[in-house]
Task: structure prediction
Amino acid sequence: MLDTEPDISDRFFSDFDFSNGAVAAVSGGSDSTALLFLLKHHLDRTLPAAKLLAVTIDHDLRPGSAAEAQTVASVCAEHGIAHRTLVWSGRKPTTGLAAAAREARYRLLAEAAEAEGIRVVVTGHTADDQAETVLMRQVRAEGTRDERAGEEESSEEGRGLAGMAPVTLYDWRTCIARPLLGTRRAALRAMLKRRGIGWIEDPTNVDQRFERPRMRISLAGDDGEARFAQAIAKAGQAAAERDDLGRRAAALIRAFADRPASGLIRLDRVFAHGEDSEAAVYALRILLATVGGVSFLVDQARCRALFERLRSGTLCATLSRTVVDARRSGIFLHREARNLPAAVPAQDQALWDGRRRITLSDRSGGLVIAPMGAVVAKRSVREGDVPASLLRRALAAEPALWRGAERLDFAGGGDVPRPMASVPVVSPFARFLPSFDLLVAAAVAALIGAPPLPPLPFRGHDRDGAWAKA
Ligand SMILES: Nc1ncnc2c1ncn2[C@@H]1O[C@H](COP(=O)(O)OP(=O)(O)OP(=O)(O)O)[C@@H](O)[C@H]1O
Result:
């Protein structure tokens, strides 16, 4: 591929702005090795001054992992590519190991990029990975649908069936790009063979105790190609639908939501009576997770049931750690008073209650962060166009800073420097924001006063940050 068609690599990478360089995530398997050489070829031709750093994560879970990382390091050295190995050295959980390994992998990759001032991490996910992911999610969704026999098809299924996004924003900062998502593994292997480049076969990729290898093997069977094509078509359709749903939910949030006070969201009652109830339910799920400080969206069916009740009148209910207080004057959302964090020493960059990023400028110690509580909230609230009881409840769950018995003002006041800032985060997308959800995440960020999305180093997204449909 590289030899006969020297410019083929442009097809994969021309949408990205690599002027700040790129981190290539290289496990040493065929796909990421191919990615590395394709990207090197592209940068050599188009942006020779750009920094390319290959990073291998040694998860330290198998005896051979350090040697594999060393093999990647040697290949890189041979080809004049900078390389780093980062070891996942933390304590390993006994359950959810794969998810924890993935979390650690992305964290370490993003840290490596940030240390070099690089904004894009590229991975070697292929169309084969995408088909496996979609089929595995389909099997799981069918399992849960059996349990809910008779219910409408959940659009949660559709959301997951979009598969992996071509770009994901990690930690609201670093882009994870998957430029090979439309390419077959076999084509990449053929390219490597032609060039005489070897790769590592990871034994866990064929270990049938795991779901993905089993799916991989089943896709190599007789009807494998047809199932592959169906899965990719389904993913494309689900991705387009999810993009569109996010766009509609963003429009509803911009039109009908405001923030009368810190920690309190108000939805105009019209929100519950519009024609596009699918988008309204999606917007509500995202708002509930954000107000409650929860990283996952509440179950679609439960939120739909709440939404139907909202249409028919007033109510007060709790879902996703969020109180939904629907009155004639509006639908109000605030954090419930239960299970708030205990008082803890204030720590720089901590995520407080899943809702606030803490930045500490006063390092003198002795600062404690705790929910404001009902007594202080009562003193701080004045009557306005929002019922004082609601303001009090919302404020009581907001963070407050204390030194001993003295409550400090975040704002500092007068010439006193601010000891701490507490910046809202869009909880469900604070860690991983797939490109499908960029628009709705941006709308929620503007609503709650979170930092806007950073400029994204890829073309193919419109002015508002949404990934344009191909
Ligand atoms: N240990 C690792 N170090 C660096 N990057 C990794 C590592 N494991 C996975 N990745 C990145 O995530 C992508 C997908 O991971 P996956 O586990 O499907 O791949 P793999 O089987 O380890 O290797 P490959 O995709 O290279 O064949 C890889 O292509 C690579 O970019």
Summary: Residues 148-155, 462-470 have pLDDT under 50 and may be disordered. Residues 25-27, 29-32, 56-57, 105, 123-125, 129, 202, 205 surround adenosine-5'-triphosphate (CB under 6 Å).
